[in-house]
Design a protein that fits this description.
This protein is an all-alpha fold. It is built from 20 helices and 4 strands. The longest helix has 39 residues, at 420-458.
Length: 459
Amino acid sequence: MSVIQFFYNLLWGDLVTIPLPGGSSIGLSLLVLILIPAGVYFTIRTRFLPFRLFPEMLKITVEKKTSTEKNSISGMQALIISTATRVGMGNLVGVVAAISMGGAGAVFWMWITALLGSSTAFIEATLAQLYKEKDPLYGGFRGGPAYYIHHLFHKKEHRMKRSVIAALFALSGLLCWCGISQVIGNSVSSAFKNAFHIPPLYTTIVLVILAAVIVLRKNATVKVLDIIVPVMAGCYFLITIFIIVKNAGQLPAVFRQIFEEAFGLRQAAAGGFGAVLMNGAKRGLFSNEAGSGSAPCAAAAADISHPAKEGLLQAFGVFIDTIVICSCSAMIMLLAPAELTTGLTGMDLLQTAMNYHLGKFGVIFIAVTLWLFSFSTFIGILFYARPNLAYLFGDNWLSQTLYKILALIMLFIGGLAAYTFVWDLGDIGIGLMTVFNMTALIPLSGQAIQSLKDYEKQL
């Protein structure tokens, strides 16, 4: 436990503390020190891609798959898979935590983090496309950070079959996704117990059986996510729009609160600006996953006419995750009376807010939404595991199936009890993935920039 705590604090704890006027301070973790400067760097290198090419992102989303490669997926399907894992508990529980700890101003810094993360997501997804390869097991294509890290370092490690850094990334990913599986099981069983008073054992059994039917079949993942993701995201968005329209008169006050608290105008005297900034930034990074190297595992599978197209689609995925879905959660909470939500945290806060807006239906809706978000995340992360297992253990069904069974076991265990030890392992896994991914992302970013220039020239 002490070793796990050491690595957790190294990655997520305050590595550097910067004092600010008024007694405030900003604590910077290693991941924030890596991802925020990288996001600024990539945004400048791509000439502010999230703003400049946003219309092009929308245009690409409606393009149809043109390739005849067997079992390959379209760029849009790859976006749906990555959205399934991005749009998860972080969009509900994560936003609640950010606002609980950092106030309404944390929402603004989540937006800023997402805009910077879009450029990072473009770079890593484009590189995944540039270094993808044929998938002999599932058909179509595969790739991701393990593959482009391998190409960067294999010359230095020419005597070794696998790059050490690439193998460490793949292992970190598999570790992370096992931890997330347990968190998913626990979150779903807890939400259903609160909303429907269903014992966790029953919920967990049904969840594991449904998941097993999908993930143990060869190519059911994409078909299922094609249905679940648009429906769940669309319903959540429409319900939020209804709540916003219903409370339209409060919107100016809510946005004023977000911007005032974002710059610590209310908290400056109490020394709270650092908490506002860092809670928004950390939760934004954790939610949109840009730079962690997970989404490129889906991006590499896309059969698309130009690598930069998939990069633009994945940049748009960050927008969907944070600017749209996370903002929906924030509005649901901020439009509820403060006296109802004061002192509440976690799902209690969100369910109380939904109960105020929509009554009992709101509590049930959040429980079902969390189930859909979490279930799609579980299916998505097992899609991510495919290329990493292949990189580590070669092309065989044994390793693929054993990992799926391990993830299902973790899902079952998590549904019955919360083991923070495993949760911390998941956080460490995604932190290490980010560190290993960024070792290749910055040196190889020039190739992604060149691909963008080529695409714009063709346009």
